[in-house]
TrEMBL record:
It holds the Pfam family LRR_At5g56370. Residues 3-196 form the F-box/LRR-repeat protein 15/At3g58940/PEG3-like LRR domain. InterPro entries: FBL13/AtMIF1-like, LRR_dom_sf, LRR_FXL15/At3g58940/PEG3-like. Signal peptide: none annotated. This is F-box/LRR-repeat protein 15/At3g58940/PEG3-like LRR domain-containing protein. It comes from Urochloa decumbens.
Amino acid sequence: MHTLHPAVFSCRELTHLILHKCLLPTAPPTFSGFPKLTWLSLTMVGFGEYGERDLEAMIHMSPLLEMLELEDVWILGDEVDEWVIQAPNLRSLTFVADDDYELQIGELPSLQKANVTIQNYNSVDRDFVTLLTRFAQVRELEFRMPVMLAEVNVLERLSCSFQILKRLVLHTDFCNVTRILSMFSLLRSAPNLQQLETKIVDSQAQNDEVDVDFFSALCTNGLFTRLKIVTITDAPLCSNEMHFIEFILSEARLLCALFVYQDDDSDHAKPSEEAVIQLTKFRRVSPKARVFFRNMDFYWRHEISLRKIVDLL
């Protein structure tokens, strides 16, 4: 993999820096930032030992930065210190990685859209309430629920309100009661949500079984009052997922469409014919609600077109 020349850190006139599949050298002591940079995109980019310091400096010393995309970035070394993303003009943040590399989120007063999809968190003491509170002002949020703490509702203390959040994408599952409780802690904090997408991760057997009454007990007066579009992807459609769908259809009075994309390759997948029959029997409180059922092969073939359709609804 190619290693960039350190001269890249001297390019003070850069407005866009987009790097893919390369290694960044250690920033020289003379590095004074990118004063005109508005867009920084790093995909499959590697940093050396203590590279988190360089990454933090690149962001912090780019005062005009509006778009930040960090996907599959990695940092070498056995230990990584905490580092902070803090940018006063940042409007869009994407951080997608296998590990969090001790990432902390600082003040982002201009942020409108955030995607934080992390598979593994290095510390079991991570404060997810504080992490999500940093995104209270966004209109669109994508977040992967932590899977390492299956016994704990990691968002139980969430008290901030996501008043302007319109679209929420959650990577989660319905296998554990605590995971469901974490999800609803966030949903109850988003009274004006219009689009909800749940991407099922790590499909596995249900550890806990719940029914539609369990979901109803979690409901509050402001829940789903503006919800119009729901999408569920990679779902084996076990009983908990089916009861969640039933609950959505019975509560969302403005619902226009519910898209269900089944992972029929899962060992725990419900037979599709059985799932369709069950879906047709669920009561729909919204007279406009339509249910669309397809498998994931269809979803991947038509993903771009499907997203355009959702945006038009």
